[in-house]
Amino acid sequence: MKNCHQVGKSTMIQAYKVGKSTPEKMREPLYRLEDLMIKYEVLEHISTISRNGDNTLELNFIRWGDNDPKYDLRKWKRSEDEERAYKGIALTEDELIALRDALKGLDL
Q1: How far apart are CA 108 and CA 97, in angstroms?
Q2: What phi-psi label fits residue 104: left (phi over 0), alpha (psi between -120 and 50 degrees) or beta?
Q3: Residue 102, SS3?
Q4: Who is most buried in 18, 44, 78, 103, counting CB within 10 A?
C-alpha cells in the first residue's frame, strides 16, 4: 500500500522567503504542500495491538520515503475519509530482537 502522510492542515504553508524586495515575492510560499508529503509503503501488516473506534495501534513493516524498511509501532487513524499516521517508533530488526528479549524478562 503506497500512501502519503500530509504534514500541515492547509494548502498554503505559512513560511515565506525572507529578503525579497517586492511584496509579491515576500508572499511567495517557502514550501509547496507536495514537498511536505511523507511517502510510505506498508510492506507487511504484522499485528493490530489495540483498536479504539477508527484509531488502531499497529505493528507493521514499513518503508518511509526512500529509506530501508523498518518495523514500525504506531497509532493510526483509518477511516473511509482519511488515513493518518500518528507518532510512533521505527525499529531495525536488531532493535526489535533486543526489545523482544527485554520483554521476555518482564514478569507480566
Answers
A1: 18
A2: alpha
A3: helix
A4: 78
Q: What is the Cα–Cα distance from 33 to 10, expressed in whole angstroms?
A: 8
Which stretches of 23-92 are DSSP H helices?
23-26
Q: Is 47 within 8 Å of 73 (Cβ atoms)?
A: no
Which residue reads 507536495 in cell numbers? 34
Give counts: helices (H), strands (E), the chain. Answer: 2, 5
Q: Examine the pLDDT at 3 and tell me if it is beyond 80.
A: no
pLDDT at 25: 58
CATH topology of domain 2-104: Transcriptional Co-activator pc4; Chain A (2.30.31)
The model's pLDDT over 11-66, given as tens digits with 9 standing for 90+, comes to 344 444 455 555 565 566 666 766 667 889 999 999 999 999 999 999 999 999 88
Residue type, 57: L
User: CA triplet 56, 59, 60: central angle to 5 degrees?
Assistant: 110
